[in-house]
Design a protein that fits this description.
binds nicotinamide-adenine-dinucleotide, NAD(P)-bd_dom_sf, seven-stranded parallel beta sheet, alpha/beta, 43% helix, 335 residues, NAD(P)-bd_dom, binds thymidine-5'-diphospho-beta-D-xylose, 2 domains, Rossmann fold, two-stranded parallel ribbon, 11 helices, dTDP-glucose 4,6-dehydratase activity, lyase, EC 4.2.1.46
């Protein structure tokens, strides 16, 4: 089986490729990635610098290139996206281009060649829940995105469904909660605080820090994507989550403890505009496929993630410096 993995040089996509190569002899991945700031060339290389699979440098909006690659494979797993909420608040245009136009380009090519598409989406399309609301998101929850990022992912999901119904595309969609693990860009909450703590800086928490995210280890997400590819029904949506709801201050407290520091030793900074309060996934749709998370202990997963960042300083230092420069500009803008 040959699969095209878009965005395979980013965080989740590269872990997907690595896990696929480690667990599935019969699958040959081909990566299409534009290598934006979010990608790292080492994500798809072994310790000796050899490429792990065929890697094509290109844009998911390049219809001719996408068409040529899709014609060679049996399925497409579409990870490529602009993925950071804070960036989408500063400039929405790359999000509209890659996340919406890019997804339509991939859907068109899959339809033309009769190739199965799995579209990787996010729980953020459902908007947020109140902290005291017992509800969780299900595949029936109405879309209510809050940020330019989540609006662009919601639009992409709608286009995939429209191509399915109107043009006969065979597609599945998964909406997953917040991922953590190795190779996550240091702009995101967990790696940002780990890299700062390695350098002795205090974590920076937005607003009151009571916002809840539903954390899942990236390997558990990718195993669930394979469960959907293997046993999911085209036309259906699968929600992926590991029942790992935790407030930001508690995640940051756990990270501080990993460094032998006091749990309260962080700074509160200006809140993210429109900051979603809580996400929560009911994973029954994916559990029904026989999938279960193998990393249910978030504190243990965080400790392993800290160990990975400690051992890979060359990997994150340049990206962290660039991300911190962007954050300093953000803080000057927000006051
Ligand atoms: P990431 O930002 O780490 O990686 C995105 C990758 O896409 C990068 O390698 C980048 O170079 C590539 N890319 C960006 N624009 C491109 C373009 N125009 N053409 C080709 N490649 C392009 O993101 P991630 O965290 O790995 O997220 C992957 C997918 O999973 C995204 O679709 C995201 O919306 C979704 N998702 C992420 C999370 C999470 O917690 N990170 C949770 C749920 C869903
Ligand atoms: O420095 C920070 N301080 C802070 O308090 C950063 C970077 C974030 N935060 C907060 C904002 C969120 O409540 O931490 C939480 C997590 O923030 P991010 O890591 O930016 O993730 P989030 O905005 O929740 O979105 C993530 O999960 C869903 C991914 O980036 C998306 O791609 C995915 O769709």
């Amino acid at each position: 089986m040959r699969i095209l993995v878009t965005g395979g040089a980013g965080f989740i996509g590269s872990n997907f490729v690595r896990r696929t190569l480690a667990t599935r002899d019969s699958v040959t991945p081909v990566v299409l990635d534009a290598f934006t700031y979010a990608a790292h060339p080492d994500n798809l290389r072994d310790e000796r610098g050899a490429e792990l699979c065929e890697v094509v440098r290109g844009d998911v909006r390049d219809a001719e290139l996408v068409d040529r690659l899709v014609a060679r494979v049996d399925a497409v797993v579409h990870f490529a996206a602009e993925s950071h909420n804070d960036n989408s608040l500063l400039d929405a245009d790359p999000f509209i281009g890659t996340n919406i136009t890019g997804t339509v380009t991939v859907a068109r090519a899959c339809t033309r060649h009769g190739v199965r598409l799995h579209h990787v989406s996010t729980d953020e399309v459902y908007g947020d829940l109140a902290l005291d609301d017992p509800a969780r998101f299900t595949p029936e929850t109405p879309y209510r995105p809050s940020s330019p990022y989540s609006a662009s992912k919601a639009a992409a999901d709608h286009f995939v469904r429209a191509w399915e119904r109107s043009h006969g595309l065979a597609a599945t969609i998964s909406n997953c909660s917040n991922n953590y693990g190795p190779r996550q860009h240091p702009e995101k909450l967990i790696p940002r605080q780990i890299c700062g703590l390695i350098d002795g800086r205090r974590p920076r928490v937005y607003g009151d820090g009571a916002n809840v995210r539903d954390w899942i280890h990236v390997d558990d997400h990718n195993d669930a994507v394979w469960a959907v590819l293997d046993r999911g029904e085209p036309g259906r949506t699968y929600l992926i989550g590991a029942e790992g709801e935790r407030a930001n201050v508690d995640v940051v407290g756990d990270l501080l403890e990993c460094f032998g520091r006091d749990r309260g030793d962080f700074d509160r900074v200006t809140d993210r505009p429109g900051h979603d309060r809580r996400y929560a996934i009911d994973p029954a749709s994916t559990r029904a496929l026989g999938w279960a998370p193998r990393h249910p202990d978030l504190r243990a997963g965080l400790a392993e993630t800290v160990a990975w960042y400690r051992a890979h300083e060359d990997w994150w230092r340049p990206a962290a410096a660039a991300a911190e420069a962007r954050y300093r500009r953000r803080e000057r803008t927000l006051g």
